[in-house]
Specification:
By secondary structure, the chain is mainly alpha-helical. The chain contains 15 helices and 3 strands.
């Protein structure tokens, strides 16, 4: 501004300009303070605007999620109680099986195999020791590890089933080639097929949980694998194991939620194929006719069923006494293996036989509880498959011994003599206990109730 004498007066800021200037400075102060507050609260501050830091934090978060997925599943109080009940049933059945194998095989071990009545029992005890070790390891194993082994284990099983059929490699007994081994140490790959198929099916159906409405992605691959495994077992020849495998695979698909129409179609085809296989060979036809009327040939095809029923009837309510069976003295073939339940009913009577049936009912009950309480879908399907296998095979064997179904040659789990069967069933039992140990804790009522909204009375 110029005065009257020509001098220039310095320009002073007006109130409005001062206010504008002050107003211009205030936002910067507020923004810096807000940035500092965000930095303290979020842990990012000024560095949050850098893209490289965002990428680093994303990598760290993804690594954290991956580590949480790999975290071990802890045992729970509810799971430990269920696992303890299952373990008690398995231990009692296995010990009872050793006692019955000693009783049922003592005569044949003494007069037909060796000079000692403990020959078959000592072999069964050896396999029981291996099975107990497998049981303990399986109970402590994180069963999710099996998902990575599902494919290789199935391929190994298929390879062993092929090797069994190679002439000079597979061991033949009574016209059937079902074993691999050297000398008295032999294994039966068809028993391993049961466990490997269950693990494979559980893994496949767990991966395709959202595609259960598409049978071409769920039912079809399971059935094709079932046909491949069963076809190799039928060539041994053996028909009982494919029946068990088919029942287990079908029921696992049903539990997983597959389309019922597709399951019915495949079940009809499998039943028709089984009927054709049963009538295609003369000895299977004879088994069917002897099952319908065993007294038509009491000294031939009907002999085993008749002797089994005679032994069961001789036991009465309380039995003739442990070790006092008469059927095992050469009257009942396979008294210590497939038809051991007849010796059980003869020696400990209807009460002892009912206790064995009750034990498998308990396995079904606690196995279903383990499946329902499993922490993930794979555990649920694994527990369901193992439970179906053990219970279905047990009642199939009992029905055959009673003469309700034709003879197929499946052992009674945990009780019948047979090393491969005992080891695989104990390993599967350990996996079932392992799933049961990690059951989900039930939600408390307080956590399920909703808190009242603001402004509403509590």
């Amino acid at each position: 501004m110029t005065t009257a004498n020509g001098r220039t007066r310095p320009r002073t800021a007006s109130a409005g300009s001062r206010n504008r200037s002050t107003g211009d400075r205030r936002p910067s102060t507020r923004s810096s303070s807000s940035l500092s507050r965000r930095g303290v609260a979020g842990g990012e501050g000024r560095s949050s605007s850098r893209p490289s830091n965002r990428r680093g934090s994303g990598r760290r978060s993804s690594t954290g999620r991956a580590s949480s997925r790999r975290r071990k599943l802890p045992a729970t109080d509810v799971g430990e109680r269920n696992a303890a009940a299952l373990t008690a049933v398995f231990v009692v059945l296995a010990l009872f099986g050793l006692v019955m194998v000693l009783s049922a095989s003592s005569v044949t071990s003494m007069h037909q195999v060796a000079d000692s009545p403990f020959y078959q029992f000592s072999r069964q005890a050896m396999w029981a020791g291996i099975g107990v070790a497998a049981f303990v390891v399986a109970t402590r194993l994180d069963y999710r590890v099996l998902r990575r082994l599902a494919g290789p284990l199935l391929l190994l099983t298929l390879g062993l089933l092929v090797v069994v059929l190679i002439p000079g490699v597979g061991v033949s007994v009574n016209g059937s080639t079902r074993w691999l081994g050297v000398g008295t140490f032999v294994v039966q790959p068809s028993e391993l097929a049961k466990l490997s198929l269950i693990i494979f099916v559980a893994d496949l159906l767990a991966k395709r949980e959202r595609r259960m409405d598409r049978p071409e992605l769920t039912v079809r691959p399971v059935m094709l694998v079932l046909l491949a495994v069963s076809g190799l077992i039928v060539l041994q020849p053996k028909l009982g194991t494919p029946i068990v495998l088919a029942a287990v695979a079908w029921l696992m698909l049903f539990v997983a939620g597959a389309k019922l129409s597709s399951l019915v179609t495949w079940a009809s085809g499998l039943a028709a194929s089984g009927a054709v296989l049963a009538m295609a060979v003369s000895y299977r036809q004879d088994r069917l006719t002897s099952f319908l009327d065993p007294w038509a040939d009491p000294q031939g095809d009907g002999f085993q069923i008749i002797q089994s029923q005679v032994g069961i009837a001789s036991g009465g309510i309380w039995g003739v006494g442990l070790g006092a069976s008469r059927a095992k003295w050469g009257f009942l073939p396979e008294a210590h293996s497939d038809f051991i339940f007849a010796i059980v009913a003869e020696e400990v009577g209807m009460m002892g036989a009912s206790a064995v049936i009750a034990a498998f009912v308990l396995i079904a009950f606690f196995g279903v509880r383990a499946a329902l309480g499993a922490p993930d879908r794979f555990g649920m399907l694994l527990a369901a498959g193992i439970t179906i296998w053990l219970v279905f095979q047990a009642f199939l064997n009992i029905a055959i011994v009673l003469g309700v179904l034709p003879t197929t040659g499946e052992p009674l789990p945990f009780v019948s003599a047979g090393g491969s069967s005992l080891v695989t069933t104990l390993a599967a039992a350990g996996l079932l206990v392992g799933v049961a140990r990690r059951a989900k804790e039930p939600s408390s009522p307080s956590s399920s109730t909703r808190s009242p909204k603001a402004g509403q009375p509590a």
